[in-house]
Design goal:
By secondary structure, this protein is an alpha+beta fold. It is built from 5 helices and 6 strands; from the N terminus they run H-H-H-E-E-H-H-E-E-E-E.
Length: 164
Amino acid sequence: MLATVSSARSFLISQSNTVRWCFILSFASVIAGCSSRTISAGEHASIIRVLEEQDRAWNRGDIDEFMAAYWRSPDLTFSAGGKTVRGWEPTRARYLARYPDRQAMGTLSFSDLEITGLGPKAALVLGRWHLERDKPAGGSFSLVMRKLRGQWLIVHDHTSSDAP
């Protein structure tokens, strides 16, 4: 009987150590995942280039080229003015309706950019936008970008306008 109690105690201690190590390893994995919030300088520069290309396309009056930075998918989401548009085509249609000509588009600039890695192929971009035109406009934006097929693309855009 003593051998059975001793074996049971050894088994419980062994199980307890296994559970403890599983917890420690799980916790370490979570911490490691949280610390991967930085992205490489090269990826950071690639994201900035995408935004600069968007800026140049907009300022040429080329909405189609501006839209090249967006994920061409029905799963793209664009939120503004209390509404969410789903899909690349409806997002493009929204831009064309709001900015029908070069005068309405004005001159776009971005500022106060902050890029936070969400993993090796995802990033959150925060910033400000400004349109210089007869009636200037501006506001804030947050973008979720993913690296898909080797290219950084906007998969979600939430844009807000400053109060008039």
